[in-house]
Amino acid sequence: MTNRIGVGIIGANPDRGWAVTAHIPALKALPAYEVRAVSTTRRATADATARRFGIPHAFADHHALVEHPDVDLVVVSVKVPRHHELVTTALNAGKHVYCEWPLGNGLAEADALRALAHEKGVHHAVGLQARAAPVIRQIRDLIARGDLGQILSTSAVASGRRWGGDIDTAGAYLLDHRNGATLLSIPGGHFLDALCHCLGEFRELSATIATRRTEAILTDTSGTVPFDTPDQIALSGVLQSGTVASLHLRGGLSRGTNLLWEINGTEGDLVITGPSGHVQMVDLRLQIARGKDAPLVDLPIPQEHHATTAQVPSGSPFNVAQLYALLAEDILKGTHHAPNFDAAVTRHEMLDAIERAAQTGTRQQLSAAP
């Protein structure tokens, strides 16, 4: 590896997708990285992405990207069902890996990938970038310092944006639960990871999961697609600290509140709001009230919670760049700040417990994260 980390991105379609809207702009803004290769399933689209962003190598075969000597870090940014295959290939080649969340299509795949990553001794990260968001870092810091006193409870209502009454054809795979890209796994996984990162893991939980819609309208064809995944998730439980927690996650967008998250302590309250429950990618407003009868006021975010001072574009690339900055430090200095495959498995275990709770109607006990 040279003094810059060479990145190869699998799944960099030039016209759409998270790779070109978030990963490449984030990486281009960070001096520690250089995007050196991209691959898609068709050479024409890989070439188009390479030309658009000035990337030296383009491949239609992901094996060629993974094995290229200029690539130090492989980024897997494709649909969930292919994560296991592609991450396994990259790990077996001895490359560092950044995989989009969810890590696997279910807990078993995620656990297998974690075991292989540890066996290969490489750095690994998962795209739970809400942990790196400045607002989430500030919340975690406030709670750790005891600024709110003892945390009594936390509650949230959040909308998932997708998984509503309509969707485009490219996104229709989200409505088939077998693909592992569900309301629970994506916005649910991101939000619950941010909550647990700030407040600690769940000790026990109960859940209700329902599919209230039977089909969705395809916005680009006016056809319909079956709705084969839950669009309503209600969760309640107790954290390891004793904090009582609840979440109602809804598919689509509400005409009213789309994100309201409160954290209530003996000495103060936090209120977090935003345009949807995707805390990993939307702008969040943080307000605080401390002291009896004190009003809520906006809380500025200190510069120390910005992992990078680079000119990173706002919107989708920002928190991704925050995570990449943590991963660069891990790779170059041997630290472990970025959320890795261990963190991913912990979150998969929690999602698995939520599904069991809903299916069996029994309260589930969880172990503390290592």
Automatic annotation (TrEMBL):
Domain of life from the UniProt record: Bacteria
Q: Which organism is it from?
A: Chondromyces crocatus
Q: Does the keyword NAD apply?
A: no
Q: What is this protein called?
A: Oxidoreductase
Matches recorded under Pfam families: Gal80p_C-like (PF22685), GFO_IDH_MocA (PF01408)
Q: Which UniProt keywords apply?
A: Oxidoreductase
* Annotated EC: 1.-.-.-
Domain (Gfo/Idh/MocA-like oxidoreductase N-terminal) ranges: 6-127
A GO molecular function assigned to this protein is: nucleotide binding
**What Gene3D superfamilies does its record include?**
Dihydrodipicolinate Reductase, domain 2, NAD(P)-binding Rossmann-like Domain
For this protein, the record's InterPro entries field holds: Gal80p-like_C, Gfo/Idh/MocA-like_OxRdtase_N, Gfo/Idh/MocA_oxidrdct_glycsds, NAD(P)-bd_dom_sf
Boundaries of every Gal80p-like C-terminal domain copy: 134-274
For the protein in the UniProt heading, the enzyme class is oxidoreductase
